[in-house]
Amino acid sequence: MKKVWAFDLGASNGRLMLSKFSGDHLEIEEVHRFKNEPVFLTSHYYWDILKIFDEMKTGILKSVKQGHGDISSVAVDTWGVDFGLLTKQGEILGNPFSYRDSQTFRGINLVLQKLSANEWFGISGVEPAPINTICQLAAIQERNPELLEQANSLLLTPNLVSYLFSGVKANEFTISTTTSMLNIEQRTWDEELLDTFQIPKGIMAPVVEPGTVLGPTLESINQELNINPVPVIAGAGHDTACALAALPLKDDHSAFMSCGTWILLGVQVKEPVITKQSLEWGFTNEGTMDGDYRLLKNSMGLWLIQQCKKVWEKEGSGISYTEEAAFVKEAKPFQSFINPDLDVFLNPIDMVKKIQNVCQETHQSVPETKGEILRVILESLALKYRWVIERMEQLTGKRIHVINMGGGGIQNEWLCQFTANATQRQVVAGPIEVSSIGNSIGQLLALGEINNLAEARSLVASSFTTTTYEPENPGEWQQAYERFTDLIKQGRNHL
């Protein structure tokens, strides 16, 4: 039996999963889970990379104590766009900034002063957005150029952590496609783009293909954790690329949804779709584990609910998941809608008030109770996913029949059922730990245990259960969608 460690780091929590592969069955087990949230300090949001790495080592220690010292490899996947900087000596230059930091809004303005949206999209295939890596770098170059002057290497988040384990500097392809700095045709860093924004070309660690074996764990790591050297693999570094690899899609008429803090909704394509229409609609092209592309839309996900629950907790009226579901059921449907991808929802101080203000500004009923707030969010999310799917069908010329949803967000059954209702398409939900499973698949491919992704998806289908949701109440949801699309037309300020 082959065992691998899969570190799946999300924008709200991280986990170490132990995967066991018997040849015809894959089993995955959570070893360690920990919170991972941006830390607000000196007017900026940072990732606490030292805490993250310490928690990862804690996970390894737990796994070893449980008798799993015979590990064949380890790999890391994370959210996109963020990065860490290293000195010439290989030391970290401070905690990495979070993509939710306000400097990114200044950054996108700086980028657009020198590069049109059409040029930007044509080079990278990535939707121009404040969260993109290049915006953060442009802001740093203006505000704190000394930081880049001191930097010797830039490593994207999963590759930064892999470096801390292996000492090898490399940026993996799927995570590199999220930066807006990778030339989508040449699949290398666009040097002209880097020169335009005075980003030192030498700091960009080389791009490697998914499945590249970086090397064994450092001797210092082995001694600290009392482990034998473990091969560190640069698997698909982006969690959505991992999720896509693990979702049991039946054919090319299936869409994928990676559901968590963000919802990434798209289809796999052989070539990037770089057109005026895909740019206008806010689509992006990112890499897949097998070298293709994900045509997708980055849409807001359960972040909206997470932030509302934080507000209620601070007020002393926090709610459980069971109460959340009950509140949604009790609330009257289709009272008000929001465009969940408005920039104002990216990181407000009070999400509840922000949602209420947007409803008031758009002359709708203002939600007051927890159930009303939750219902506004969930219905709006589902309706926005229909909007995305209809435009994705136009871009690809293919009808979507089934939506495969995976990730922690599918535990919200209302989200799954509302998505089926709003899109009037069958939803197949599962597995939950889809990114971790995809991470494991990438390692097994690199180790030669699995031949290809088609074989991997069959393995997932036979190893994990799914739940099917059929669409309901088509008439009511059609009327709601017509109201929602009218609301969308009132403002184009989307991510």
From TrEMBL:
Q: Name one Pfam family in it.
A: FGGY_C
Write out the GO MF terms.
ATP binding; glycerol kinase activity; rhamnulokinase activity
Q: GO cellular-component terms in the record?
A: cytosol
Residue stretches making up the Carbohydrate kinase FGGY N-terminal domain: 6-244
Ranges of residues in domain Carbohydrate kinase FGGY C-terminal: 256-446
* Keywords per UniProt: ATP-binding, Disulfide bond, Kinase, Nucleotide-binding, Rhamnose metabolism, Transferase
Listed name of the protein? Rhamnulokinase
Which lineage ranks, top first, belong to the organism behind this chain? Bacteria, Bacillati, Bacillota, Bacilli, Bacillales
